[in-house]
Each structure stands twice: as structure tokens, then as C-alpha cells.
Specification:
The protein has ten helices and no strands. It has 332 residues and is an all-alpha fold. Helix 2 (75-100) packs antiparallel against helix 3 and helix 3 runs antiparallel to helix 5. The longest helix has 65 residues, at 267-331. It starts with 63 loop residues before the first helix and ends with a helix.
Length: 332
């Protein structure tokens, strides 16, 4: 400023709370400044990267009270909390189904709903989780958010494979979705290695990211098409959710390349909702089929018992008639 003082601020997702200008805010990176009326302030920005990445610096001046006193409730927060409440209810339902029915499909539905809820907590409440669990290690939030994201999509694909019974019914689609799951996991492993281990060669993740993305993209689409062409109702239900990761990935590529938006603008809520709704309706349809199958099996069992009873009754009546005729013959 005009008084000749130099203010030094510190922020970033690799900085512990004790070194940040605003300890309770993880994203976006915020640095404190002070400028009086009519003053000119020269701002110098030095960026030290803890991990290799494509960097775009975008500086915005905001009044401090806006940062410290954000809107208590925004439409985005309302949507996120409604989604979280619905996921909690579905997780409770998944628990009941797992205890009651005890089938692998409901076990994977339970795992998937747990992953969705966990991912929602880390994605929609980053600052809160940061302050609660990782104030001196903010990268922990990013790491566990990635774990929850990968667990969500891989458990969803595995749930779909078990739901459709693709191993026995559609082995090609089963294999393709298995490759998709594998490369989602490999993407996480290599991404974590290059992002969080400082000794990793600079830029290694950006050299291999295109290959991993292409394989995930291709196998996910191919698996969905293989199931779609079967025209099986269970497979069609799963396909509605299976395309959501691809839609989300396509939109993120669009954001990063054409819109040049470095952070996710909120598509996670849309694509997670799509997967949850698709599998909720799919499992409701399957549950309805299972109820009908049990009713049909019970009806067949009852009919068989009635038929057996009627046969026994006819045998008994025939025996009684034969005995009556025999007694009449002896009386003659």
C-alpha cells in the first residue's frame, strides 16, 4: 500500500490450518489483503506446487465479510442436503433388505449407498470435514474424497453386474465392465501416486491420464451398449445408470477444455442422483419380480398340495367303495 508495508499471505490445499490466512476455508484458496480508499495495491503471486498439474491462476477481489459470512442457505445447499437425506433413507432401506433378503445384490446395493453417502459428505461439505478431521493435513480431504468417488462408481458397476446376473447371462458385458472397474481403480492408484507422492516424476499423471480416460470411456460405453442390445428389462434398467459416469466424464472434459473451469461446477450432484435413482427403480422392479416369483411358487405349492389331497381323497373313497362292495358280496 501507500504506507510502504508489505503483506504476505499464505493459502492452498497443501497448507495446514496454522499457516493459512483463513484457517477454516479450504477451497478456494484465499489470501488476506488490506487497501484503503484511493490506494493502489500491487499484488505479487508466487505459486509453489506440491504436485504436478495444469495450472490456471484466476484472482478475484472479494470483501472479507462475504467470505466470513456466506449465505446461510443457498439453492445448491438445499439440493445437496435433500440428496443426502434421500441417500440416508435408501441406506437404511438397503440395510433392511440385506438383513431380510440376504442376497448378494442387496449387499452391493448397501455398499453402493454407503459410498454415495460418503462421497456426498466429502464433496458437499469439504470445509466442514477439513475443519473436523484434517485441519493440519488438508490434502487428506482430497485423498478421501477421491477414494469415495472411485468406490461409488466401481461399487455401482459391480452392483449392476450382480443385479443383471451378467456373469451367467451376458459374459461379454460382464468382462467389459470388469475391465472398466479395473481401470477406474488403476486411474485412482496412479493418480494418487503422481499427485500425493512428491518423489513422483513431474507430469507423470498428465502423460498417462489420456490413456486411462480413453480406456474407461470406451469400456464403459461398450458395456452399456452390449447390455442395451440384449433388450433385457433388468439390463435396460442398469443401462440408465451406467451411462451417468460417462455423461459426467464428458461434461468434466468439456469444463476443463472449452470452459476452462478447473474445479467441478456441481455435476457430481446430477450424476450421483442419476445413478441412485436408476438403481433404486431397478431394485424396486427386481423386488417386485421376486415377490411375484414367490407368490407364483407359493401358488404352485398350494395347488400341488391340493392336488395331492384330492388324489388321496379319491384313493380313500375308492378304497371305501371297494370295501362296501366286498361287504355286500359277503351278505349275498
Amino acid at each position: 500500500g501507500q504506507d510502504g508495508k508489505t503483506l504476505i499471505g499464505h493459502s492452498g490445499t497443501a497448507s495446514p490450518a496454522s499457516k493459512r490466512d483463513y484457517p477454516q476455508h479450504l477451497l478456494p484458496s484465499i489470501i488476506k489483503g488490506n487497501i484503503g480508499a484511493g490506494e493502489t495495491l500491487d499484488i505479487w503471486c508466487r505459486v509453489t506446487m506440491a504436485e504436478p498439474c495444469n495450472l490456471k491462476v484466476d484472482i478475484e477481489l472479494v470483501r472479507e465479510k462475504i467470505i466470513l459470512s456466506p449465505p446461510f442457505i443457498s439453492p445448491k445447499m438445499v439440493g445437496e442436503n435433500i440428496f443426502m437425506g434421500a441417500c440416508a433413507a435408501l441406506l437404511f432401506l438397503a440395510t433392511l433388505l440385506l438383513i431380510w433378503v440376504k442376497k448378494p445384490v442387496y449387499l452391493w446395493f448397501f455398499i453402493f449407498q454407503s459410498a454415495v453417502l460418503l462421497n456426498g459428505v466429502f464433496t458437499f461439505h469439504q470445509n466442514e470435514i477439513y475443519n473436523l478431521l484434517f485441519p493440519e493435513n488438508p490434502r487428506g480431504v482430497i485423498f478421501f474424497m477421491l477414494v469415495a468417488t472411485i468406490l461409488q462408481v466401481t461399487s455401482f458397476l459391480q452392483l449392476g453386474r450382480v443385479y443383471v446376473g451378467s456373469k451367467q447371462r451376458f459374459p461379454k458385458a460382464h468382462f467389459v465392465f470388469g475391465i472398466t472397474i479395473l481401470f477406474y481403480i488403476l486411474t485412482f492408484v496412479f493418480g494418487t501416486f503422481s499427485r500425493f507422492i512428491l518423489e513422483a516424476p513431474d507430469g507423470i499423471w498428465f502423460q498417462v491420464r489420456a490413456i486411462f480416460t480413453a480406456v474407461v470411456y470406451a469400456t464403459n460405453i461398450l458395456g452399456a451398449l452390449l447390455l442395451l442390445f440384449t433388450r433385457d428389462k433388468l439390463a435396460l434398467f442398469f443401462c440408465l445408470g451406467a451411462v451417468m459416469p460417462i455423461v459426467n466424464l464428458t461434461y468434466r472434459i468439456y469444463e476443463l477444455t472449452l470452459l476452462e473451469i478447473p474445479r467441478n461446477s456441481g455435476s457430481n450432484l446430477v450424476y450421483s442422483s442419476g445413478m441412485v435413482l436408476a438403481m433404486a427403480f431397478a431394485l424396486a422392479y427386481r423386488f417386485r419380480l421376486e415377490i411375484k416369483e414367490k407368490e407364483a411358487a407359493l401358488k404352485d405349492k398350494v395347488d400341488a398340495e391340493l392336488e395331492k389331497t384330492e388324489q388321496q381323497l379319491r384313493v380313500d373313497m375308492a378304497a371305501q367303495e371297494a370295501q362296501r362292495l366286498s361287504e355286500l358280496d359277503r351278505m349275498k
